[in-house]
Fold each of these.
Amino acid sequence: MNGGGGLVTSEWAVWKWAAQTEFQTVGTTFAVTASAVFDSAAAATYTVAVADPVLSGGLPGSFAFVLDSYAGTETFLIAAPGATTFYTASTGAAGVVGRAVGAGRVLHLSTTMGASSIADANAGRLLSNAVNW
C-alpha cells in the first residue's frame, strides 16, 4: 500500500485481527478500529453514506443482498480516525470503510462476501468497484 497498491478485506480479516490477534502487522494499516462484534443475519442492506464515483459507480443508493455464513456473516465495523464510511450496514454499523495508506488505499467490507453475496448483481458490482477503487 505504501507504494501505491491496495488492500480490500471482507468480514473475516477484521474479525480475526480483533478477536484472535491475527494480521497484526497489516492491521496497523486498517481503516477500522478493532471490533470482534459480529452478526449471523441472512441478509444485509448497504446504504450510501458518502458517495464515491468509483466505489458507488453503477449502484443504487441502497441495496440488499444475501449473506453467506462462515460461523458468522458480518462484523460491526467502526471507522478509524481519518477513515471514510462509504456505506452503512443494516446493523447500524459501518458497512464499507476506507482510507489512504501511503500512496495506496485500504478498504473493508463488513460482510463475508461469499458466493451467494457476489452472485447478487449489486454486491458483485460493489466488490468489483472496491478492487478498482
Amino acid sequence: MTAEQPFLSVRNLSVGFGLEGKIRAVRDVSFDLEAGKTLCLVGESGSGKSVTATSIMGLHKPGSAVVTADRLRLEGIDLLSCDEDRLTGLRGSLMAMIFQDPMSSLNPALTVGFQLREALLLHEKVSRKAADARVLEVLQRVRIPDAARRMSAYPHQLSGGMRQRIMIAMALICRPRLLIADEPTTALDVTVQAQILWLLSELQREFGTAIIFITHDLGVVAEIADDVAVMYAG
C-alpha cells in the first residue's frame, strides 16, 4: 500500500442474488476509508448496508451471491481475488465484524472464555495460558465487570449490553486494523448505547482501528462519524 492509497478503497461495488445475480441488493457503491477513521454507512432497512459489509468481509456462501467491483482493496490487498482460505486468514486478524444480535452470533452451549480463546487460537500460535491471559485482558478492556469470573459464564447469563461487549471483545482479540460494526446498538437502551459508542471510540483511539459503523440513526452518525456514505434502496 502506497502513501497515496486509502486504507480501504471501494469502487462501484455491486452485489446480486438469485440466478446469475440478477436480483440487485447493492449497486455501484463507492467510498474510501482512512486508517484510524470512522465511516458511517447510513440508510433505511433494505438499502444494502449489511450486504455491503458482508461483501467486504467475504461472508457470502459460495454461489449465493455475485459480487463485482472495479476496486475492493484493503491495505493493498485485492479482496475479490482472495480465495476462501485467504479470506479466513484475513477475517479476525486484519478485519473483523460485530453483528447486530449477539445471541445469534455467540454459541449458547459454550462459555464466553472458550469462544474468545478459540477465536484467538484460530489466527495466532499461542499457548493456552497465553490465550487465556489475552482473553482476560480484552474483557477488561471492554469494561466487563469481574472479567475473570465472566470467562466461565454462558451467553444467556449475561445482559444484552454485556453480550454486545463480548462481541466487541471477540472482534478485537486479534487486534484487526478494520472493524465493521453492523448496528451494534439497535437492541440496547439509550444508556447502554452511549456506553457502547464511547467504548468503540476509546478503543479506536487506543489501537488506531478504522471503523465502518452501519446505522439508520442520524443521532449516532452526528456523534461518531468522520465521513458518511448514504445507501439508497432500489
